[in-house]
Amino acid sequence: MPFPDYEPTVPVFVRGLARRHGARELIVQDDRRLGFAEAEARSARLARELLARGVAKGARVAILFPNGPEWVVAWLAATRIGAVAVPINTFYKSRELEWTLRHSDADTLLAAASFLSHDYLTRLEEAAPTLARASGPGIFLPELPFLRRIVVAGPCDRPWALGFEDLEASAGEAAGVGPAFLREVEASVRPADEMVMLYSSGSTADPKAAVHTHASVLQHSFNLCAHRDVKESDRVWSPMPFFWVGGFVFAFVGNLQAGATTLCEEVFDPGRTLAFLERERATIAVGWPHFGKALAEHPDATTRDLSALRAGNIPEILPEDVVPPDPARRGNALGMTETCGPHTWSEGVLPESEAGSFGRAVPGVEHKIVDPETGAALAPGELGEICVRGYNLMQRLYKTPREETFDADGFYHTGDAGFFDARGLLYFKGRLGDMIKSAGANITPSEIEAVLLSYAEVKAAFVVGVADPDRGQNVAAAIVADDGEPLSADELKQRVKGDLSAYKVPKHVWIFPDGTLPFTDSGKIDKRRLSALLEARIAEGDAG
């Protein structure tokens, strides 16, 4: 396993980045730019003022900014003094915001005044009604009993808020917190110290907070970077938000490890994004599949010069010679918030014999496959629950007993279903909770979804189990047709019969208009709500 040539703590990391890369661009957000040396200097000034205001090692500092310079400066400032960063979902409404700030025991909130249509000042006062009557410098709110200060960037007329720009400028001078004092504080930050609490998307329950250390984030992003084709000269576009593990550890911190520039926008709009990619000469594109489809279908896709793009995981806009036409032969990975991102990995074009696999274990990561009911270890090729152990694993789930999180051997049971073959290749089959049990057979929705998506007329396909008194469950599919393409449920059933075993063919198929299915804030289909929606249709006599 490759190791970085520096002590894996944020203060050591950021100073090294500034020395090596200087004025080169660390991040570009639309027309705004932040260099490596400037990020180090700005975060040092803010860190000194946070210290002067009483933010101590171990304090939770919540960050409510979109991807961009302020997010970077806030994260660096908090973590280089040993505080624990708590990235907040920028789409959260008042209830979700209040729940997360209270659950995390946030001591300080660094936030934008607004973002797109989100007015965070009003939203915070809705989350904590007593805030409207509070005034600084310290606040005491019964709804958020540990929150002591809210620092706001942008226009703000609230007496309870401190100015983000003012704190940067003050730099702790009034309290005598100078550069030498900051260095002493940074020297006490160790690799094993907690660095970040990353909240899951919480599609079926309240989100869970995975606590990761400086070492786990920096070591794992370094390890992954060693397996990625990313260089110092690269300009990496990614629309994935920094408040989730994919955007934070894999895309952003991974780019930092290579000295590459991260390109992001305040909002994804296919036409504007294509112009942005052309102007900034993006070389790598990293994101979720629906971004590529939206870009490729925009009229400007054929007129914009994207010739600088050479790598990534968005095949629709990448050169044909670097993307195999068969999706099963494209490099893949499996990961989650609790494992600090990918725990298996493959890159480039897979040989035919490895098609459909999710790669091998990342160096330093261990796996086992167990029977989800008995916990007994299973042999290669046997389908069961994927369990993970290693340096990349979270320290804990915040406020969850350790014995409820890890087994006696220190493995985390992921809830994912799959198997390793004799060569050590992982084959992922979906979430255990998504498995459909129909007349004694175990059916993986992802296999059926892949077949449905292979049809040109299908834009999106989601497969779930619906209750049946005799069979336990039946297979049901919700389909979104590609624009302008005629499609019928009966025709789809007949086509699937030619591609899959009879017991996997959906008994129920419905065609839905685009934008009408239930999704979570993270852009994932909410399968629990979808199952309830489809079962209600069946109860009303619409059997699909």
Mean pLDDT: 92
What's the arrangement of strands in the largest beta sheet?
A: 2-1-13-12-14-15
Broad shape: globular
Largest sheet: 6 strands, mixed
Number of helices: 14
Structural class: alpha/beta
Q: Using the coordinates above, name the CATH class of the largest domain.
A: Alpha Beta
Would you tell me which CATH topology of the largest domain applies?
Answer: Rossmann fold
Please provide the count of β strands. 28
What is the count of distinct domains?
Answer: 4
The appropriate CATH architecture of the largest domain is 3-Layer(aba) Sandwich
Distance between the termini: 51 Å
What is the helix fraction of residues, given as a range? 25-40%
Rounded to the nearest angstrom, the radius of gyration is 24 Å
Tell me about this structure.
The chain is of the alpha/beta class. The protein folds into 4 domains: 10-189, Rossmann fold (3-Layer(aba) Sandwich), CATH 3.40.50.980; 228-241 and 252-323, Rossmann fold (3-Layer(aba) Sandwich), CATH 3.40.50.980; 333-433, Luciferase, Domain 3 (Luciferase, domain 3), CATH 2.30.38; 436-539, ANL, C-terminal domain (GMP Synthetase, Chain A, domain 3), CATH 3.30.300. It has a 6-stranded mixed beta sheet with strand order 2-1-13-12-14-15. The longest helix is centred in the N-terminal third of the chain and has 17 residues, at 36-52. The radius of gyration is 24 Å and the shape is globular. The mean pLDDT is 92.
